[in-house]
Amino acid sequence: MKNFFLIIIIFLTSCSTPIGGAKKIEDIKPEETPSIETIEAGLWMQMNNYEEKLKTSGSRVKDKSLEKYLKNILCTLTPDYCKDIRVYVQDMPYFNAFMAPNGMMVVWTGLLLRAQNEAQVAAVIGHEAGHYIKRHSLKAWLDAKSRTDLMAILAIGLAVGGVPSGGDIFNLTQLLQAGFMAKHSRDNEREADKIGLDLLIKGGYDPKEAPKIWENIIKEMELGEVNKPLAFLASHPAPEERIKNLKKQTQSYENIETKKNEKELKQKTSPHLKKWVKDEMRLKNKVEQTEFVIDLVYGDNKNEYLLKFYKGEIYRLRGDIENNFQKAIDLYKESIKLKDDFADVYKELGLLQLKIEKDKKAKKNLQRYLDLAINPKDKSIIESYLN
Amino acid sequence: MSRLLVFFLIFFTYSCSSFNTEPKYTMRTFDKNDPKILLMPVDISICELTLAGMCEPNASWTQNSKDNIIVSFKEILGERNAVLVEYEKNNENDEIIQLIKLHTQIGQEIINNEYGPFELPTKKEFDWSIGQKVKLLKKKYKSDYAIFIYFRDQYSSTERVLYNIVTAVLFPGIIPIGGSQLAFASLVNLVNGEISWFNGYYRSFGDVRDVEKARETVNKLFEEFPG
Q1: Contact B175/A at CB under 8 A
Q2: How far apart are the C-alpha atoms of B98 and A339, rounded to whole Å?
Q3: A270: in domain
């Protein structure tokens, strides 16, 4: 009887695709679409459905010009695949971007908030395009399939072979499998990094900006909870390794240009910054971590009053512990010293003063807010505090 | 790893809950002769279960099944002298896409609340609606009703079937999940958005990949359809 099962298990193993995919999968060609019988067509179908929903999703940022701007960056990097890839911006306050097999690229607002110039965004877009060109979604699917198949067979095999506890087998096979998957995904990331940097340099951007993104992410991570790394990093190579690889690869190029386009990016993102910064603060990361992000956004001299204001906001939103409200008030006052006609700061200062000091200054500041703000939505509620 | 566990749990829960509905309706016959019925894009996805039970989407099966369902549905309308109006993909806009998404959501709520585990204790009448926005469709397509069809189906691969047999023999009591079918359809009155007729089912048999069996499935889905 045991032999019979063994034969079946061998048969099952032979049906499943070999791990890592024995057949070499070619790069996707420009304007290529998979033929309908293929597994790839199934993945495309599923993502087309998803994309259809994303298009009208409330989480998509309603700014066509921002998406068009990102698409233009993509087309500068890789004119060949310009027609094949669509870029969407999704309102998510985390550092992430992803590429679907059908050419749907999604960039999260948390990434755009952190990027300091166009070259950094281009580095990410180039990386994602690399995933598309190398068909990484298909490879990852085939890989996951063969690994889960093997795991299922192994579980039976071990049980038949007389290994005592079922629970242990499950754990063992699962662990093996999780380890393999993470490694495979890190290999794909390395490959995409390589293509991304190549496209970045050919597109005339400053390749030194690519490792800078990771340097900033490391800094941000180190300021946060030690045991809470950014979700993005779980399936990606360690940032330190990526920085090293990117710098090394850059050395192999000659005639490197240094386009950064800082102004261009800021111009496109500025209408959204207020909201994105608010969303970032709502995550309630550690104060230092949020401050670091705010520094990235408003760190240049021109905007120091905003930097002070938002740092004040970080403290205010954490509630009245550890003297937070007083810290916030001090920062608001510093902001006013730098620029005395920014409406929002008077409102928050006034409201806090009303809360903790109940003094005349509160009313004065709230009145100043009403004088400066253009059609404030909260006009009537603020007025009710004044009377 | 925890994600995999969640997947297993979902599959397990799905396998336990099965429903076979009675059609729900607010009308038995159309309120006019030869009504015009707009067929909305069929929301369909068919996949193949891999050995370990992953659901691998299959574009070719999905396309065939979709064609089969549409052919069968046209026959049903033909018997009732209703006129079918074709949906124009090129002529769609965001508001119409939102309507389709809304219908999918409401359809799932109907299943949960009318047949499923979350039956609403005080809701006695079948009075669901997808809202006044449907007037857009009425205007654009000059139709009286719209029909929405939602279809999800899985088929086991050969490896999966063998694996199921081996597991069942070796570990009595554990039955891995085979293929299963979830479908629902609703007829929406384009004057006010009300759902005039609804039916759905969840079962572990049936096949829509060939036209004969699809006809049977679609006939089952359109039980007690007005006309």
Answers
A1: no
A2: 45
A3: no
State percent of chain A over pLDDT 90: 67
Cross-chain Cβ contact B51/A15 below 8 Å:
yes
Q: Work out how many domains chain B is built from and give that number.
A: 1
| Each residue's pLDDT tens digit, A163-218 | 544 555 556 666 666 666 667 788 899 999 999 999 999 999 999 999 999 899 88
Question: Is B195 within a domain?
Answer: yes
How near does any CA of chain B get to the CA of A144, in Å?
9
Single residue among A221, A251, A281 that ends a domain in this structure: A251
Per the prediction, chain A carries an average pLDDT of 87
Identify the domain containing residue B201 by its residue range: 20-221
Q: Does the residue A258 lie in any domain?
A: no
B14 in a structural domain: no
Q: Radius of gyration over alpha carbons of chain B, in Å? A: 19
CB contact under 8 A, A156 and B167: yes
* pTM: predicted TM-score of the whole model, two decimal places: 0.87
Look up residue B117 and give its DSSP letter: T
Residue to mutate among A56, A102, A145, A160, with most B CBs inside 10 A, is A56
End residue of a domain, out of A189, A221, A251: A251
Q: B200 is written with which tokens?
A: 């759905």
According to DSSP, residue B42 is labeled P
Contact yes or no for B212/B65 (Cβ under 8 A): no
* Tokens representing residue A44 in the block: 């495309």
Element (H, E) at B74: helix B59-79
A45 in contact with B, Cβ within 8 Å? yes
Residues from chain A contacting residue B50 (CB–CB below 8 Å): 145, 148-149
Please check whether residue B13 lies inside any domain of the structure: no
How confident is the model over A276-300, as pLDDT tens digits? 999 999 887 888 999 999 999 998 7
A42 touches chain B (CB under 8 A): yes
Question: How many angstroms separate the first and last alpha carbons of chain B?
Answer: 51
Q: What's the pLDDT tens digit per position in B52-72? A: 889 999 999 999 999 999 999
Q: How confident is the model at residue A233 (pLDDT cuts 50, 70, 90)?
A: low
Structurally, chain A folds into a number of domains equal to: 2
Range of the domain at A356: 299-386
Please give the Cα distance from B6 to A96 (Å, whole number). Answer: 23
Domain CATH for B146: 3.40.50
